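User: Hi! Is it possible to get a structure for several chains at once, not just one? Here's what I have:
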Amino acid sequence: MTTEILLFKNINILPELFLGISLLYLVLYGTFLSMNKNFPLIVNSCVFLGILILLMTSFLLVNDSLDVLESTILNNTINNDFLSLTSKLIISITSSFCLLMMYTHLNHQKINQFEYILLFLFSILGLFLLCSSNDLLTSYLAIELQSLSFYVLASFKKNSTFSVDAGIKYFILGAFASSLFLFGSSLIYGVTGTINFSDFKDLFFWIFPGSILGLSNLEQYYENQDQDILLLALLEKFSNSQDKLLSQYDGDVLRYEIDNTKLYENSVYNYEKIYIYSLITSTVIDSMHSILTTSNNQSSLTYEQLYYLGEWLYFLQFSGDTMIYHLLNSYYLVCDNTNDFIEKGTFDEKNRFELTRWFFGSFSFLIAGCVKQNDFQDLHVLESSLDTNLLQIGLTFILISLFFKLAIAPFHIWSPDVYEGSPTSSTFFFAIVPKLGLFVLLIRIFYGSFYGLIDNWRYLCVLVAIVSIIVGSFGGLEQRKLKTLLAYSSISHMGYSLIAFNSGTFEGIQMLLSYLIVYVFSGLCIWSIFIIARLKNNHSLLKHNKDLTDLVLLNKTNKMLALFFTISLFSVAGFPPMIGFLVKVGIFLTAIESSMYFLALISILCSVVATFYYIRIIKIMYFEKVIVGKLYYPITSNKGIIISLLFISLIFLFINPTLIILITHKLSLLILN
Amino acid sequence: MIINFLFYFFSFILILSSLMVIVVQNAVHSVLFLVLSFISSASLLFLLECEFVALLFIMIYVGAIAVLFLFVVMMLDVKTLTVKKDILKYFPFGSFIGIIFLTEIFLVVSDTFKTNPYIGSSLFNYYTNWLDKVDSLTELESIGQLLYTHYVLQFLIAGNILLLSVIGAVSLTINTSHTAKKQIIFKQLSRTYKNVLIV
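Assistant: Yes, the chains can be modeled jointly so their relative placement is included. Here is the combined structure:
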């Protein structure tokens, strides 16, 4: 592999480079202007600069021509395929919406520091790198970049105890999750010797494809593969092929193996090799047996084949393998008519050929019987050659750390507290945007590279999905704060996405991505309404923790806002005339199609339960008879336009879901490159 | 020749200083001997041409951890006690544990390191490090060359993370308003168990 440095061919990461460099300029801008005493509201100009930077980045992303350039660049560490491009585009557009929505809120919260926007952009840079990372190191660094800025964003309101509390909680649990990720990656590196996702794919998708040995092309293995794999290939060929005979080429390979094997005492590697040899021998003998029984003619074996097999058995005789001795002994005990021969001779150079003939004349019958008795069909050949247990532990650690970051149920305890305590503008951001990037990483790791081991990681995912849906649905019932309720809602939504994630099909990926996109847009709608509906209350100017009862007079003060809030809540709950219904049905259908009936049943029932707390908000807004309540300030027209756009998209996508379905279809087909 | 001499010299210092760490009465002196043992082990690594690991040793253990120890020990103001009469009391048990560990180490070493089975036969080949004779690139150089070419993007991201942490720390600790939460030592010291709200 030639080393590559930052050259013009790596222009694919131009959006990230642009974002990073403009970040540095923003640092300079903010530093010089914040020293000027006459500039009162620096955060306003920084917000608009941030929006400008994000829009220019998305312009660069749109103009990225993937057809011309290579998708993997910088020594395979960055993979700029269609998936990363689309998710980056969605992330940048969504976060520019976030910035646009939050800037008056920042003014009212008296957050007047340019660092806020800077941290925001840093986390977006981290998400960009996360979407396109193609090895464990880059993805770890991207996660760190993203979550470090989140910790600071959570604790940014320094005069609030809740905010500081949330920041510390987020920091400790996030650091814990990152350390789990590192531990899992180090285990995986220890087992495989690589950290690159493409190499994982080569290893576990093509060479060791899980429990199945897809060895159609033996020539390839003969030429350039490891010896163990070669032996496995031979074994597979013997047990599968029609004629069940050794060719000249196979024999040469075997002979080469025998000549090159040196035996040391107590060597585990060697023991494994002998084990594989013995497996091959028994399979060969089995095939010989079948030939002999069918044709009853010993001369159907050629001289060369017999020669190689004799060589083989000669080797095994001196290998000191206990299993072979066991087989031999069992044979000796049974076979009476050859007793005299055994008494006479040993296996030495002279009578090797005769021995070979003798072996295949009668020995094969009995060995075949032994093989049948020991049930050799269930031999775990892979486990003897590649230790997947350690790999599974590493993968489980990575899964758990990413679940921590995504706040999926057994690892969700931090999320309601942190969402409640942090400033609303920060919560707005990290409730919506990072989920997409983290799921892209999950897809890259578990679909792109470890798809061969799907049977192993799927169990954990299914369990976690069930727990997450149950916790998200039942935990939200008790909540009286809107932010906590939305946190529980996001937990259950992550559970639904996880159902689609562990279906293991292209439709599952498609549904996962479309669900996430819809989640992002409807979440954007809900949180925008939440953040711009400002209470007319002098005392709680700085406090923005809305109770559910604060929404009582929203319908009276701002009818359209209440209507939009209702409709987007319906969409999140999964009611028919909105896009939320279609994607949720799609998720249930994928679960049923991949035979996860129990999971589908539980998630449908919990979805009904979760509808309760969405509808309760609507009931509070429309059907409460109150005399005293809090009124709301009117909203500005540009925010009204954005809210209307988001709202219309929710209904328009239901009428014409082709847009989202087509994009996600293309994404799902291009995942494996 | 001189390398051998230096090796024995530093090993001697290492053993002596690590012995002094546990023998010496004053805690500050003990930490200083710990620093000395770190430095001598780092120089041993230098002699073995593991420059990067040696520098990491000095940077992390001496620069960060040992200095932290030193600060803590100096702040705690530990009284020096005379433990001479206890030495005889703990000697049997201590020597017992020491002998057990010694035998374990011997067993592990004798199990792990083996003589070459091919010694004396024609298959035996002598080890010659041809790379040393042809091309001598030190460890630091090779790591640096890899870091600035192969892992340039990761290096940039790490730089960004450092910048982010600086900005985050500054923005969290800078005092712009008087309402920000900060430590009031008097309040903290006068806090007792009874007047704390327990949730």
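Chain B touches chain A through 27 residues (CB under 8 Å). The CA atoms of residues 21 and 30 of chain B lie 5 Å apart.

User: Great, thank you!
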